[in-house]
């Protein structure tokens, strides 16, 4: 299978060394899962991209959702699946941090194979740890998938154990926010709780899809602040993102290997997984 790279719509591999995305992380990104040339969660990716452009005052280089979809399909083979990663920057120009008043954005679109996820992650769940790094509180950037990811890079550097799937991230006020690459849902008495992302964190597309499907699936979902104790007292918990779908959390381990908490796979996790995973061409939770 052949995957391609487009820069500003052209097949090339060079970007200006003065680009503000490189200098300051001044931009956004999206990672879209495609199946046979189509992104199942396209509309949600498009909504987040448009919202991010408005918040950062970036011109959107795509004329419409259809235009965006057409560009995505150019970098991933149509006979199978893949990922299309968009990096959108403010381009070059300006003086120092002062951005140009009329920026000419740059965008990079790269196609990649879908990373393999072991089947047992879906059937048995995964192990997580708590990261020592605390996410900064910044309401202006909260929810955006912007290019500044140093917090996630430093958090991911905290462990090397392949048995740990991901690390949980709390903010400076000790509120659970997300993991390094996923959003999180907690289940308590048949209600789904997911962290409120008005102060920090990334508003993920899979998270949005689950919330959007709450009526169709008869789900009781609440966006709220969640503490460590609430997580420990939960009936179940799961991670989600648009690449890997819904992944149950089986256990929370200390770096010593000691188990803080274990959770079963909850019927609500199965219900959500059995709805969304066929759409995403992923195995459902058992």
Question: What's the helix and strand layout?
Answer:
Blueprint lengths: L4 E3 L2 E2 L8 H5 L2 E9 L6 H15 L8 H9 L7 E9 L16 E7 L6 H5 L2 E10 L14 H7 L9 E6 L4 E4 L3 E6 L2 E5 L9 H8 L8 E4 L3 H5 L3 E6 L3 E9 L5 E4 L4 H14 L6
Parallel strand pairs: 6-7, 6-13, 10-11
Antiparallel strand pairs: 1-2, 1-5, 3-4, 4-5, 7-8, 9-10, 9-12, 12-13, 13-14
Function: Involved in the biosynthesis of p-aminobenzoate (PABA), a precursor of tetrahydrofolate. Converts 4-amino-4-deoxychorismate into 4-aminobenzoate (PABA) and pyruvate.
EC number: 4.1.3.38
Catalytic activity: 4-amino-4-deoxychorismate = 4-aminobenzoate + pyruvate + H(+)
Structure explained in plain terms:
There is one protein chain. The chain is α+β, with helices and mostly antiparallel strands and 286 residues long. The chain has two domains: 5-112, Aminotransferase class 4, branched-chain amino acid transferase, N-terminal domain (D-amino Acid Aminotransferase, Chain A, domain 1), CATH 3.30.470; 119-280, D-amino Acid Aminotransferase, Chain A, domain 2 (Alpha-Beta Barrel). Helix content is 24%, strand content 29%. It is built from eight helices and 14 strands. The protein has helices spanning 20-24, 42-56, 65-73, 119-123, 150-156, 205-212, 228-232, 267-280; strands at residues 5-7, 10-11, 27-35, 81-89, 106-112, 126-135, 166-171, 176-179, 183-188, 191-195, 221-224, 236-241, 245-253, 259-262. Strands 6, 7, 8, 9, 10, 11, 12, 13 and 14 form a nine-stranded mixed beta sheet that branches. Strand 9 and strand 10 (191-195) form a beta hairpin. The longest helix has 15 residues, at 42-56. It starts with a strand and ends in a 6-residue tail after the last helix.
């Amino acid at each position: 299978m052949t995957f391609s790279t487009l820069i500003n719509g052209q097949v090339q591999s060079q970007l200006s060394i003065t680009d503000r995305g490189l200098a300051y992380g001044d931009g956004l990104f999206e990672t879209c899962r495609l199946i046979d040339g189509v992104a199942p969660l396209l509309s949600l990716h498009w909504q987040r991209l448009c919202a991010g452009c408005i918040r950062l005052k970036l011109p959107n280089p795509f004329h419409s959702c259809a235009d965006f979809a057409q560009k995505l399909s150019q970098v991933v083979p149509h006979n199978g699946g893949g990922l299309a990663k968009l990096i959108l920057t403010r381009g070059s120009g300006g003086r120092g941090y002062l951005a140009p008043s009329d920026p000419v954005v740059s965008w990079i679109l790269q196609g990649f194979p879908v990373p393999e996820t072991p089947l047992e992650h879906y059937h048995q769940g995964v192990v997580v740890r708590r990261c020592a790094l605390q996410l900064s509180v910044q309401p202006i950037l909260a929810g955006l998938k912007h290019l500044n990811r140093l917090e996630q890079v430093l958090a991911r550097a905290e462990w090397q154990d392949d048995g740990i799937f991901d690390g949980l991230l709390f903010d400076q006020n000790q509120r659970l926010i997300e993991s390094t690459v996923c959003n999180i849902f907690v289940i308590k008495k048949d209600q789904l709780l997911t962290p409120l992302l008005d102060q920090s964190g990334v508003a993920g597309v899979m998270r949005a899809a689950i919330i959007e499907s709450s009526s169709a699936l008869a789900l009781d979902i609440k966006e709220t602040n969640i503490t460590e104790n609430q997580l420990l007292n939960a009936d179940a918990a799961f991670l989600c993102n648009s690449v890997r779908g819904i992944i149950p959390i089986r256990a929370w381990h200390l770096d010593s290997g000691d188990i803080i908490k274990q959770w079963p796979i909850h019927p609500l996790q199965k219900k959500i997984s059995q709805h969304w995973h066929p759409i995403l061409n992923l195995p459902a939770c058992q």
